[in-house]
Structure formats: C-alpha cells, structure tokens
Specification:
By secondary structure, the protein is of the alpha/beta class. About 35% of the residues lie in helices and about 15% in strands. It has 12 helices and 8 strands. Strands 1-2-4-3-5-6-7-8 form an 8-stranded mixed β-sheet, with helices on both faces. Helix 2 packs across helix 12 and helix 3 crosses helix 4. The two termini are about 35 Å apart. The N terminus is likely disordered.
Length: about 325
Amino acid sequence: MSVSTHWSGHAAATKAGGDGIAQAFIGKLPPANPLTSDLSDGTMQTVSMQCSWGGELTAAVSADYDTAAHVSLFIPGFTGSKEDFLGFLPHLIAQTKPSESRAFVAYSQRGQADSARPQGDCDYALEDFVNDAREVLMRLGAERRPIDVLGHSFGGVVARRLSIACPSLVRSLTLLSSGAKPIAETPQSRAGMQAIRDHGSSIIFTSKNPGATDEPQDDPYLEMFRQRAHRTSVENLLSIASILTDYDDVTDSLKATGIPISIMFGENDPVWPHAVYREEARRLAVTPIVFPGAGHSAQLDVPDALAKALSSFWFKNRGQ
C-alpha cells in the first residue's frame, strides 16, 4: 500500500514524556497486505491482530494509533468488513481537531474479507464475535485509554454486548443503524441464505450489483466488494444471518453501564423498523440522530454529516 503525506500529517498532540517524545500506549502491530487498492486516500494502514483462538483479524489503523490519547473503533456489520469505513475516514479525520489527539481503527470480524476464517458453524456464535471485540480493545490498550466504539448494523449487536461485558474499556458507544431487537425472518431472507449455501459467498457480489460480472472491476469500490464477497466465509454469513433473527434485547443492561451512548440511523434505512431505533433511544434517554438522505450505511451515503455528528459526540464525552 502506498502511504501518502496524510499518514504522518495527522499525528499531532500525543501523550508526551518528560523529553517531549510521544509515548506509546501499545506496541506497533504487524503490517498486513490490504484487501485491495487503498480506499482511504493514504490515511490508513493495514495491520493484523493475533487472537487467543489462533487466528488473525485484519484492521485499518491511522498513523498515531499507538500514541493517540483517544481511539475510535469501528465494528462492521453483516456482509461487511473494515473496508466499509475506509472511504469515510478521511472525512472524519478532516472533522477532528488536531489538538484532540485521536486515532481511528476499523477491523474485519472473524470470517469477513481477509480476517481469519474458522471453518465450523460453531465458531461463529455471538459470544465469539464479542470475545474478538474485547481482544481488539485489549490490543489497542483500552485498559489505559478507554475506546470510543461504533457498531454498524450487526456490529452494533456485538458492540452492545462488548460494552456490557467490559464497560471500563469503553469510553462511549455509537449504534449506527443497529436495532436492539432481532429482524423478522422472511421468505426472501431464507431464499438468500439458501442461495449462499448453494452458490457460495461470491453470490453476495452479483446479487448486490446487478449487471456486474464476477471478474476484476475498474471501479476500486466494486473490486473491493467482489474480493470481499469471495473471501468472506459462508459460515460467517449463515451464522450472522441466524443471529440477526434471534438475539436478546439488552437495553436495560446497556443503560446500567452508564456509558455515554448515541443512536444514529438514516431516514431511509430499510433494515430495522425506525420504531425499534426510537424505542431504544427512549429507554436509554438519548435523542436519536437521523440523517436525511441516508439509508442503512450513513458512512457511505452522507459521510460529512456522520463525521460531524461523531466528532461532536466524541468531543463532548472525551473526558468520561
């Protein structure tokens, strides 16, 4: 991956020792090859994180991830990966005050894209994804600098339970287009899962991009989608699809943590009924943020609006 001047330019105020040299909260993580061509305008680098179960999760990190006082972590959703945030992060970096000393990390969950792919269905229980997220927090030094966590869609299902399991490691929680209650199974969703069983994960690309052929694409985002579809495991897709139709509402336990929480979604989000988002916000005593013109992925549809909302929320709660 080529690294532009953005890579060193954003590292500003970091924790400094008596000699004025920035001190690291963690050691540097080993570099890894990116899934496809750089989508972050040179602002992010790909690294790997070893997990206790033996596999490695890939992550995209900003230049100062080891020394910044604040870190924002992005957990992707169903059929997604860290790449869902790469084009968005330059917008977020532009909104961040250099004096805030903030780094950004997005990782691919087990079985997504170029993260390790356990082969058995039993390796993709909800608790497995939560345990992975906790290990990521620990790799990022959350015991010394609690992390601002954003969970998108299924990533929010994981992030809620992560926050409940280890509230001292989470500075704040943002739930982006993620419902507190499961999604109703439909004949269409059952047919989609059967198609994955019959044809493999690559069908995700062709079904979401009608007319596109399963061959190298000139558009870098289309090529990323294609590569990701091929490399995401069938077990990951089938297991998450099953989880999304059957999980507990943990809103009361989440509220009891006392963690600052923000709920955000697009006005055209078709995945969860908006009443589900609003009801959770009411129970958590927060005002939801609704993005005009956005669907299920505000980071793709309205990146500047989402960046502004996140920067404001994190800055407000930076001292928590």
